[in-house]
């Protein structure tokens, strides 16, 4: 024990002497290569950007493979993972959605974070071209660029995010409120009252209520009562409408737009209900009638009101789903561009004939 204390005291003396001299004599100077590996930050003016380029189409493929498991196919977020798209116009609402398109100030913030920390668990495994491509796709997912956009070191600083002016230097210490404030740290109020409560989310399963409604429903007529009832007169079926010629070029454009929807919806012969219902035959269909899908209360109400998915109603819904159907569970922010909505509706018509 004494030997150990002697060694410890000697070591402490050496470190104290070294500290007095201005150096701890620990480790070595980092090499230029090591400094370069650490110094990977990217500034809003483009300083620090590596050479490279990538387009939206490439980014969509990489995003689907490396990022969608957490962030969803169109950056809508899965479970509690961050939402990266949408949120336009929500920053002043009670429940703001802070995304790349609605909140982030600079594109360099996006590039730097993806390059430095993503994918989760595999940080810094992406090549520069892949980071450019993912960043381009995220711009597209937020309706900030077209689907043929290519991002590169050369045009990077020309892209401005909508909320750039929403950020400014923190000047609170210079404000009159800060300088004249009287900070209270103890017994600040004689009585504490609850003035507001957290918003309650409607997450109660609906099965119980459905069972109660079924129990309260009038009893079905007995078999003998049905047999004794007079048969209803036969009704001639209305002639089927003639199929309308569709615009094949517009359908192809709509198929591209539908990529933003396919994480939740399917169309075609093998389509199944997923997060959202099957969209086959949606045009002209009454709201909330797809078998086997559990709709929100809001959409069930529209069904009771007799809402039909006409071109006009579907266009309004696709523009801002949460505005058209208040209380919808659909998290998609909507399609800003009219041409995208027109193309998507034409694509859905091709699966409704």
UniProtKB/TrEMBL annotation:
Q: Region (Disordered) spans which residues?
A: 205-240
Recite the lineage of the species: Bacteria, Pseudomonadati, Pseudomonadota, Alphaproteobacteria, Hyphomicrobiales
Q: Which Gene3D superfamilies match?
A: Cytochrome c-like domain
- Pfam families with a match to the protein in the record: Cytochrom_C
Cytochrome c domain mapped to chain residues:
54-142, 249-352
State any single GO MF term.
metal ion binding
**Which PROSITE patterns does the record cross-reference, listed alphabetically?**
CYTC (PS51007)
Q: What's in the keyword line of the UniProt record?
A: Electron transport, Heme, Iron, Metal-binding, Signal, Transport
Task: State the InterPro entries in the record.
Answer: Cyt_c-like_dom, Cyt_c-like_dom_sf, Cyt_c_1A/1B
Spans traversing the lipid bilayer: none
Bias category Low complexity: which stretches?
A: 213-233
Could you tell me what this protein is called?
Sulfur dehydrogenase subunit SoxD
PANTHER family for the chain: CYTOCHROME C
**Which ranges of the sequence are coiled-coil?**
none
Where does the UniProt annotation place the signal sequence? 1-21
